[in-house]
Design a protein that fits this description.
100 residues; mainly alpha; 2 helices; 77% helix
Length: 100
């Protein structure tokens, strides 16, 4: 028998569902869902908290990556400026011959 309640059933659950008389299956399933509703709600709350923590963690990682990239860019720019100064100093001291 096919169940269209949106659940995947294993063989044990299928046997339990098959043991319920035909006209009462829907009501029994509804009662079971209502009985576990508080647990389902608490699991939903926990899941939402975990998802929020994950979003915050992802945002923090992204912000740290951006900060790191900015620091690297500044460092490379400073290294490039320093190298240009060294080349200019060497050129002024005639250590480099630019004759082609």
């Amino acid at each position: 028998m096919k169940y269209s309640i949106g659940l995947t059933v294993n063989s044990e659950l299928k046997r339990l569902l098959d043991a319920i008389p035909s006209g009462q299956k829907s009501e029994v399933i509804r009662k079971a869902i209502r009985a576990y509703a508080p647990q389902i709600k608490s699991m939903k709350i926990v899941l939402e908290k975990l998802e929020e923590e994950h979003r915050a963690w992802s945002k923090r990682i992204q912000e740290e990556r951006i900060i790191h990239q900015k620091k690297l860019r500044v460092r490379y720019e400073n290294l490039a400026k320093h190298e240009v100064k060294l080349w200019l100093r060497a050129l002024n001291n005639s250590e480099i011959d630019l004759v082609i």
